[in-house]
Amino acid sequence: MRSLIDILDLSVEEIDELIHTADDIISHPEKYSEVCKGKKIATLFYEPSTRTRLSFEAAMLELGGSVIGFSGAQNSSAAKGESVADTAKVVSCYADIIAMRHPKEGAPYVASINASIPVINAGDGGHNHPTQTLADLYTIYREKGEIKDLTVGFCGDLKFGRTVHSLINALARYTGIRFVLISPEELAIPEYVKTDLLDPKGIPYTETTDLEAVMPELDVLYMTRVQKERFFNEEDYLRLKDSYILEPKKLKNAKEDLVIMHPLPRVNEISVAIDDDPRACYFKQVLYGKYMRMALIMKLLKEAQA
Ligand code: CP
């Protein structure tokens, strides 16, 4: 049974197919309005979410299917001690596909090997968030025309940010991508990303603490929130949370066609004064995520039936 646990579970060619399906959904939504009639998605969210859960649910509804699920472990039998493995077996009796978010790294993988239906990782701890990556790749494609020959800056919490780890993994497979990694030293990208991925593939990257110094180089700026929920100590979070705040004056040396992204939710990292700048793409990114999730649901359900 095909699931999506890590973005690398999809080849670049499959991501291209999803992108072309998403383009077609935008152009011809009526063609897709009954594709999943009679099918159900179960959204099993053990951690808070606005975008990911609601976009999976909106995606399935727009495909003519329906939705069951829970938002919060306290609203499920996890509160009574039920395991993820048992939950996956149980939900396989009710639904056709699962989208799961869980605070523990690997929980959606455990679900996938116990379920008899496809499981989509909707974010596991500080590990991966592959459908956010699909939204991010589609945003870059829509705004830049292709995913190629770009300097991509990641700024903020590069240590705990699962969206950052997934997107770097994905972009490392495209041609001509260079990374600029901007963070406080304590929130730097994990060493394994450099030693296991960037260095062996010879992918160029620089690390810095100074966002404004590197701004003129960037084609894409991916801002991130400091992940409060992953800190062990409130004092460290309070000290680091406002390390970077993108304000209009900080864009004075930025490219005219810079693409500003953020997986959201934002806290203080991007001033609301940036929202009207034509380079601000983070709300478009939300919408693009729904189309990519529609394309993904259709693909996995089709493969499950084959
Ligand atoms: N980007 C993202 O995962 O948002 P939510 O936590 O609201 O789902």
Describe the overall structure:
This protein folds into two domains: 139 residues, 3-Layer(aba) Sandwich (Rossmann fold), CATH 3.40.50; 156 residues, Rossmann fold (3-Layer(aba) Sandwich), CATH 3.40.50. It is built from ten helices and nine strands. Helix 3 crosses helix 4, helix 5 packs across helix 6 and helix 5 crosses helix 10. The protein is 38% helix and 15% strand. The protein has a five-stranded parallel β-sheet with strand order 7-6-5-8-9, covered by helices on one side. The chain is globular, with a radius of gyration of 19 Å. The structure holds phosphoric acid mono(formamide)ester. Phosphoric acid mono(formamide)ester binds next to helix 2.
CATH class category label of the largest domain: Alpha Beta
- What is the strand tally? 9
Share of residues in helices: 25-40%
Number of helices: 10
What form results from the Cα inertia axes?
Answer: globular
CATH topology of the largest domain: Rossmann fold
For the biggest sheet, the summary is: 5 strands, parallel
CATH architecture of the largest domain: 3-Layer(aba) Sandwich
What binds here, in terms of ligands, is: phosphoric acid mono(formamide)ester
**CATH superfamily of the largest domain, called what?**
Aspartate/ornithine carbamoyltransferase
Give, in spatial order, the strands making up the sheet with the most strands: 7-6-5-8-9
Low-confidence stretches: none
What number is the mean pLDDT?
A: 95
SSE order in H/E notation? HEHEHEHEHEHEHEHEHEH
**Oligomer kind:** single chain
Radius of gyration: 19 Å
Question: Roughly what fraction of the amino acids lie in strands?
Answer: 15-25%
End-to-end CA span:
10 Å
